[in-house]
Amino acid sequence: xxxxxxxxxxxxxxxxxxxxxxxxxxxxxxxxxxxxxxxxxxxxxxxxxxxxxxxxxxxxxxxxxxxxxxxxxxxxxxxxxxxxxxxxxxxxxxxxxxxxxxxxxxxxxxxxxxxxxxxxxxxxxxxxxxxxxxxxxxxxxxxxxxxxxxxxxxxxxxxxxxxxxxxxxxxxxxxxxxxxxxxxxxxxxxxxxxxxxxxxxxxxxxxxxxxxxxxxxxxxxxxxxxxxxxxxxxxxxxxxxxxxxxxxxxxxxxxxxxxxxxxxxxxxxxxxxxxxxxxxxxxxxxxxxxxxxxxxxxxxxxxxxxxxxxxxxxxxxxxxxxxxxxxxxxxxxxxxxxxxxxxxxxxxxxxxxxxxxxxxxxxxxxxxxxxxxxxxxxxxxxxxxxxxxxxxxxxxxxxxxxxxxxxxxxxxxxxxxxxxxxxxxxxxxxxxxxxxxxxxxxxxxxxxxxxxxxxxxxxxxxxxxxxxxxxxxxxxxxxxxxxxxxxxxxxxxxxxxxxxxxxxxxxxxxxxxxxxxxxxxxxxxxxxxxxxxxxxxxxxxxxxxxxxxxxxxxxxxxxxxxxxxxxxxxxxxxxxxxxxxxxxxxxxxxxxxxxxxxxxxxxxxxxxxxxxxxxxxxxxxxxxxxxxxxxxxxxxxxxxxxxxxxxxxxxxxxxxxxxxxxxxxxxxxxxxxxxxxxxxxxxxxxxxxxxxxxxxxxxxxxxxxxxxxxxxxxxxxxxxxxxxxxxxxxxxxxxxxxxxxxxxxxxxxxxxxxxxxxxxxxxxxxxxxxxxxxxxxxxxxxxxxxxxxxxxxxxxxxxxxxxxxxxxxxxxxxxxxxxxxxxxxxxxxxxxxxxxxxxx
Amino acid sequence: xxxxxxxxxxxxxxxxxxxxxxxxxxxxxxxxxxxxxxxxxxxxxxxxxxxxxxxxxxxxxxxxxxxxxxxxxxxxxxxxxxxxxxxxxxxxxxxxxxxxxxxxxxxxxxxxxxxxxxxxxxxxxxxxxxxxxxxxxxxxxxxxxxxxxxxxxxxxxxxxxxxxxxxxxxxxxxxxxxxxxxxxxxxxxxxxxxxxxxxxxxxxxxxxxxxxxxxxxxxxxxxxxxxxxxxxxxxxxxxxxxxxxxxxxxxxxxxxxxxxxxxxxxxxxxxxxxxxxxxxxxxxxxxxxxxxxxxxxxxxxxxxxxxxxxxxxxxxxxxxxxxxxxxxxxxxxxxxx
Lengths: 840, 337
Description:
The complex is a heterodimer.
Chain A: H1 13-27, H2 41-70, H3 80-114, H4 123-142, H5 169-198, H6 211-243, H7 256-290, H8 297-310, H9 326-338, H10 340-356, H11 363-386, H12 388-394, H13 398-428, H14 434-460, H15 477-502, H16 543-546, H17 550-555, E1 569-574, E2 581-587, H18 593-609, H19 613-634, E3 642-646, E4 649-652, H20 661-690, H21 705-729, H22 733-760, H23 769-800, H24 810-839
Antiparallel strand pairs in A: 1-2, 3-4
Chain B: H1 4-9, H2 21-29, H3 45-78, H4 85-118, E1 126-132, E2 135-141, E3 147-151, E4 153-157, E5 162-167, E6 173-176, E7 184-186, E8 192-196, E9 202-208, E10 220-226, H5 228-239, H6 248-256, E11 286-287, E12 292-293, H7 296-304, H8 306-309, H9 323-335
Parallel strand pairs in B: 1-5, 4-10
Antiparallel strand pairs in B: 1-2, 2-3, 5-8, 6-7, 6-9, 9-10, 11-12
Helix pairs in contact in B: 3-4, 6-9, 7-9
């Protein structure tokens, strides 16, 4: 930059104290009951982290039950039925309620601090995501106390799990409970991506971002493409279980392998969605203890991007034994080996950084080194199982159990503990005990290896996974006993950590106890609710090392937004690449609305589990109304157009279109939505590739007329919506409302035509996978049109209330953006269901 | 643990008694201390190749692990002086990218070139194995087209390539005989194939490797690899009708209680196809799909309380029959050789 911004002159003590009091009043969480209405990232992040840890402890108890049962052959501690629930729930809890949420939790807690932001752009969305996670998690975990937990393994293969006689309500609890949590995961991903792109401090160009932010961006992007296929799969799965639509039933044109594809297109990237956040923590920790900037910043960023991309190209290595053709086996073996290269680069970046610095070997480094020792071994066995011929042997054996625990414990659990020891001062203002930490480390490190190293051999001696018992005398007895002993030693170590976290402690850690260089260590510990005293201008990757005056200036309130004179929560919005200041964003304060919305959303899912469809629908509608009210109340036009944010900068208070965070959030959400839709289209073409009579010839429906009519009407509704936007831009309120009314009418007609096609041609979705697929695609598109209608009506209401004007037009611009995607969805749906059968 | 027999007699909550001692003993005789179900004690061409592959990978993995962790500990704990950043960057390029690329490329070439020959088609004996909950339906098709149905046991001629065709009517199973070859899933709606080429006569153990319901852990089978001449002789005998010299009582009771509705015993009116073919059950190493040793006591137990042995089994229990009747049926079945 040519003229670097300069901080404001130092204000006098009295006015600085007054500023601090105002900031504190605005940002503090409520007292007593009101505390639970908090939406600030410091509270939500803490709750999220604590809840994820609690679920981990629950999953750990389940793990101990598994190991106790397998300690000796022919054990009868657990029955077969209970054991199957225990191992299914163990995997499910650790994956969906600990590993992935822990990323979201830590990111929500720390990202704003790392970016010198006051909060993330949608604090209420964070709160909503948290409550969804907590409610859904308790529901799924609680099921085991009623003997109703899922029991089909955490990947729930049909036909075993679609069979309503063999798999009871547990399967529905898995599908709906987790479906609900997946929504929370996507909500968090949207929030975090927008946070990284739009809430950085001025001057922090994208190549100056802390590495953690890079990883959040990459992982968030991966979630957008990885979770939707699972959601699509869940929809098909639940439709089969509840309404007998035969997507996975080979007797009626379905195929159980379709689920395996959808599950693992999610499942393999998920492994990296779990692993990369931990690498991200190490990327913050290692430079601190090497006391130098990371070596190879570009290398590690490129490697992380490469890992993210490659992780979507190797899902079939979970399916080497289903009889894939040799060419597929070769391709997926090669892709699976290739992903080791960017992973290796990331590890070598850490080693290189340590070599180029002088390492202070404190507790977080102990855990980081232990993580490396475990993870590298998991990676090496990963290279082994990536080769199809070797995998034919060890697939579904205890070798794979050992391998996956090495990668997850080494690649996730130990780094998270390193992060816990490292970041504890920010959250709590105290340090954890070094002595207890060493005890915990050695107990866990030893226990883990005693438990899982012999398990490789157990697996190679032929012990399959997911067995509740095994015979004596075929070479597994001692190995299993050793594994069980190791597991309990490991658990003892976890208890030491838990005790250390919970015990009362005295000495405050003080500011920046590790002498780190990144922004999250700028403030006092524990972090104040306002996040950062004033938002600095950043011009380096390690501002605390490279901009020595910064801490003083920030704490003296000499940078941006040092005050909250209007009594509103505010943070800065900057441009995605260069972090040029764009807007002073007003963000909503504490509220019970997100909790209520989450409870009602949860009601819709949980009541469906019990086939209480009417109460579930009521709950869903109530959730929609609450969310609309929430939306209505938080998008207020500001009282003035712009304000002075300090340090000589004046910023607008309102933005719409690509300059606004709302537009980005909508865009990102729709990417996820489109990838769920793409997964449903994938299902259609998957059937086409494996069945010669799909689609049937002559096609059974839905014909061409009604779908094409629907497409025409939907495209007209889209055009009318765009016209409404442009009339509004020209200042015509009448034009806006008129065109919106036209668009609404057209959209409703399009919805009717879309559903009428398969209806009038008599497609019965329970007869065969073809009509079921046509119905699910048409239904998906129809639902999107109806959501579009709700948005159009919302815009009309906003216009009538005077909240939507030519200047304050975010509602109509986001609606128009939504309609681009809705139009694509309808057009593709019609092309597939109506036109493809003509050429197939 | 107490002795096998006392445990077996004690009534147990889940009622599972696992007796693989017979197979285990035979496995030990077959050589090696790894047990009858180990891929590290290979007795088949594919298992041998993969065991070699594993040894190569194991040596490589140990060396790489030691190098990487050694370097990390050197950098973190030994605390050498700061190395020049140029050297550190070079380390990222070499250690992180170049060396792994070379090693992985070589490994991939080695691993993938194994595949085509291991699973090439075979025109000899064909065996169709169907995965049921929780047992195995086995049909041998000789090169001249004759079909022989058996269950829960696989007999194979040593030195021959045998093509297995795998399917399943209900849920996914996976057939795995670690000592001979890798596994292959049995997927409803599809027929998958696997080639077994056993090299060494002996008794091995196979299992279901894909979780298939409550008794997934109790779905195993014995694999006997025989000298080719002995195998031919066995198959010829197996193709014939049941031969029991035992008293008629057992046969009469078996038929009178409707066992024939689900089970086939060739040479009698019993021709059910729901459950396993019992024509030569007396000659099998195990009953209940590799779970119980084939003894009179165990046969009685399974007839009376199949669900206690195998949770979720389809067969109804016959505990209401007088004990002598159960004993007579069990005894007659034991004589079907």
